């Protein structure tokens, strides 16, 4: 099992990452909560990882904090929640926000995340409410300032990332229109779009 990676960030396009470790490129998928804190391409990066092995693929997931990885692993134990949905949950809420949602048994808040219907939201709350207290509080928010990119490419990258996370194309278009400002980087666009989705 690969537990962590420390190397050079070779590429990032949500939700995919490429980390060069001594000449070996590791492809990973990461939640937006991790993307917000990533350094610029070419700089050093350290990530916690989780490997999912399926019959048709081996997928490595990367996380900026141990708390994110622990929550991801706990979500995988919930019946009906797979890696893609767990990644979507971590992209739509910080660890602290998710724990508060479960503690409050806020089914409606969970249903705002793509792919989560009422039954799945209720199951997540029932199966996780006993374990939420085990998680460390105080996960720092996504305060890293992203590098500015080309606005047009930032829009298209944000669009692709949100569709990958499970949002419908018309909804993505609406969210990005509400979030857009000239010069915003991809990660900031996605962050604002996800915030808008959480309020709707």
Description:
The chain has helices at 32-35, 66-76, 83-92, 95-103, 107-111, 118-128, 151-164, 169-179, 186-199; strands at residues 4-13, 16-21, 24-29, 44-53, 58-63. It is α+β, with helices and mostly antiparallel strands and 200 residues long. It has a five-stranded antiparallel beta sheet. Helix 7 crosses helix 8 (169-179) and helix 7 (151-164) packs across helix 9. It is globular. The relative contact order is 0.14.
Short description:
Helices cover 44% and strands 19% of the residues. The protein has helices spanning 32-35, 66-76, 83-92, 95-103, 107-111, 118-128, 151-164, 169-179, 186-199, and strands at 4-13, 16-21, 24-29, 44-53, 58-63. Strand 2 (16-21) and strand 3 (24-29) form a beta hairpin.
SSE diagram, text form:
Layout (H helix, E strand, L loop, with lengths): L3 E10 L2 E6 L2 E6 L2 H4 L8 E10 L4 E6 L2 H11 L6 H10 L2 H9 L3 H5 L6 H11 L22 H14 L4 H11 L6 H14 L1
Antiparallel strand pairs: 1-2, 1-4, 2-3, 4-5
Helix pairs in contact: 2-3, 7-8, 7-9, 8-9
Work out the radius of gyration. 16 Å
Tell me about the largest β-sheet.
5 strands, antiparallel
Instruction: Tell me, briefly, the overall form.
Output: globular
Element order: H for helix, E for strand: EEEHEEHHHHHHHH
The strand order across the widest sheet is: 3-2-1-4-5
CATH homologous superfamily designation of the largest domain: 5' to 3' exonuclease, C-terminal subdomain
